[in-house]
Amino acid sequence: MNDTRHAIEVNDLTVAYHSKPVLWDVDIDVPEGVLMAIVGPNGAGKSTLIKAILGLIPKASGDVKIYGKSYTQARHLVGYVPQRGSVDWDFPTSVLDVVMMGLYYQLGWVRRPGRREREMAMEALEHVGIADLAHRQISQLSGGQQQRTFLARALVQDAQIYFMDEPFAAVDAITEKAIVALLQELRSRQKTVIVVHHDLQTVEEYFDWVTLLNVEVTASGATKEVFTEDNLRRTYGGRINTLTRIAG
Predict the structure, then answer these.
(1) Cβ atoms of residues 82 and 57 within 8 Å
(2) 3 pLDDT exceeds 50?
(3) Which pTM value belongs to this model?
(4) How far does the chain reach from its first CA to its final CA, in angstroms?
(5) Containing H/E element for 74?
């Protein structure tokens, strides 16, 4: 990992809803090739941070750079896995079609996917272990299968940076293990992965970089340096009592 090269730079980022700040003066630098968790209490602005970086919601102020460029200029370098709950899973389309949507930026909206694109999508589905579900309607999938479908859609983009909003939410243990293996593989290929994460017990095991957020950034850096009991108490306002494992 080259610590001098930042995949993401966020400077003075503020986001407000109805004049109430949801993110306030956020500054983070994310090195290339790390697995970073965004951790904080409910309502801390974790998903908002990802959406603001991706330009999905307006910023009140601040600047975001992806490899030194604006998101608009660097969009082709980014893959995004949204929260499962934000998707209409009753939409009548197949798993394979959903995965091929990840190629639309390369194809443009006029050119239709061909055999090469279907092969790429099938390879991505094989990678996440659900190639046998390619022609199933997405409404028929379990929560874990839905999450794997989204991961495959992101993989087919072959991005440099992946943003994942709660990929472990409501998935079974087997799917969680598969997702972790995939994240580690992406890191081994020098990809950068940003994950909104809730389970404090697994942060040290899964991630080598962490941002602690509660509207403002409490700390951001290498997990072994910033994932401390003091920083967690400052982030959660002293409302957690499960931190003894960190010290011991």
Answers:
(1) no
(2) no
(3) 0.88
(4) 29
(5) helix 71-74
